[in-house]
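Schema walk-through. Below, the input block comes first and the output block second. Nothing else is stored per chain. Lengths vary across the set, and this one has 91 residues.
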Amino acid sequence: MVPLRTEKVTEDGSVEIIVVEEGVGNFIEETDTVYYRHEHRFDNGQLVDLNETRKVADKLLMNDEAVHTFLRNSFVRMRRGQVSFIKLGRS
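--- output ---
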């Protein structure tokens, strides 16, 4: 997949959103429920563990205090239906 754009979530660039498909409609809000899939990859694109590929989406409540700040800050910058990768780097 070729990225359409990259957006920095943090000022130091340690968290980035790499957009591969634009969403439509409203931005995700603090009170929404988000369904997402995740996998861990090396910088070269190789999966860290092939068993970690998820077929079923996980559910995340945006207003849950247990949600990591980087996820919340990333999701509120996305539109519904957007396909993106969240890249975590070193600060």
